[in-house]
Write a structure and sequence with these properties.
The chain is of the alpha/beta class. It is 52% helix and 14% strand. It has helices spanning 2-29, 37-43, 48-59, 63-69, 72-93, 101-105, 113-117, 156-166, 178-187, 205-215, 225-231, 238-246, 273-289; strands at 106-110, 124-132, 135-141, 146-152, 171-174, 197-201, 223-224, 259-260. The strands form three sheets. The protein has a four-stranded mixed β-sheet, sandwiched between helices. The chain has a two-stranded parallel sheet with strand order 1-6. Helix 1 (2-29) packs across helix 3 (48-59), helix 2 (37-43) packs across helix 3 (48-59) and helix 4 packs across helix 13 (273-289). It starts with a helix and ends with a helix.
């Protein structure tokens, strides 16, 4: 009975995300006016009391506190700390707790040139559909590891078509394996198993270098395209870095959501700006609470 209740609570958490995302979209569009709790609650058609409770249940903190974490002022403050201090020092000395989850629990392996160029010919890719704190997602894997994690809204058909377009020559089928289970545990903050999440990625050496750099950004911190370019020792390659980040094939696990503009704006995101705001704010709150 307790197990069933825990599952019900978990799924309630997941479905709450779409109401949270609607609220975050409204906040993003009206950031200059600093909308009140009543105005945000009215936008998603719930009472201020219910919205406060729903949001706090999802984020672990109040909407007011959460808004501080996704503000331009907070982003600029974090970016100032970033530079060559927090980003590099955290990696060199190691962080306790959850600060380096992505770095410690994720391993990237690039595909061979043949696999990279031929659209997945001779590859078998299985995928499964799930829900997490940040909405619906499709996770796909080869025999080696995860090759894609794509967020989607309510229609699975479109994301399945997207996967097929990414791998036009692969054998694609629905199914679930050990790699998928590890991803679910990662979203649930369950690191009781020693296995790392293995990523089997199709990308150029430059892209993979950028994606590996993203794993080094500590949870709760933000970085910029300029800093990432400096970190991979190609300081003039900001535009190419931005392109590599934009083509990240594995959402959240490779934390491209932690890269923002130098001026401090949250910026756009392949899977929607509200989702990026949700990830940044939730991670900041998690680090603060820890």
């Amino acid at each position: 009975m307790l197990h069933i209740l825990a599952l019900l609570y978990k799924f309630k958490h997941m479905h709450d995300y779409y109401r949270i995302a609607e609220a975050l979209q409204y906040i993003k569009e009206n950031m200059q006016e600093q909308p009140s709790l009543d105005a945000i609650a009215g936008k998603i058609h719930v009472s201020p009391f219910h919205f406060q409770r729903l949001f706090t249940d999802w984020a672990g903190i109040s909407p007011k506190k959460f808004l501080q974490y996704i503000s331009v002022e907070h982003a600029k403050k974090i970016l100032k700390q970033d530079g060559n201090s927090v980003y590099d020092a955290a990696y060199e000395t190691g962080l306790s707790g959850t600060g380096r989850l992505h770095d410690l629990f994720v391993n990237i392996e690039g595909m061979t040139p043949g696999e990279y160029k031929n659209g997945g010919k001779n590859l078998s890719i299985q995928y499964s559909l799930h829900e997490c704190r940040f909405g619906n997602y499709l996770v796909a894997s080869t025999a080696v590891g995860i090759c894609n994690l794509l967020f989607f809204e309510k229609s699975a058909a479109s994301v399945e078509d997207e996967l097929k377009s990414l791998w036009p020559n692969a054998k694609i089928f629905e199914g679930e394996d050990h790699h998928h289970e590890l991803v679910q545990k990662f979203f649930d903050n369950d690191f009781s198993q020693a296995d790392k999440i293995k990523l089997h990625l199709r990308g150029t050496p430059f892209q993979i270098k950028v994606w590996e750099a993203l794993l080094r950004i500590p949870e709760g911190h933000l970085s910029s395209y300029t800093t990432i370019a400096k970190t991979i020792e190609q300081p003039k390659a900001q535009r190419a870095v931005g392109s590599a980040i934009g083509s990240n094939p594995v959402g959240f696990i490779i934390p491209c959501h932690r890269v923002i503009k130098n001026l401090g704006g949250i910026g756009e995101y392949r899977w929607g700006a509200p989702r990026k705001m949700a990830m940044i704010g939730w991670e900041a709150a998690k680090v603060e609470i820890a």
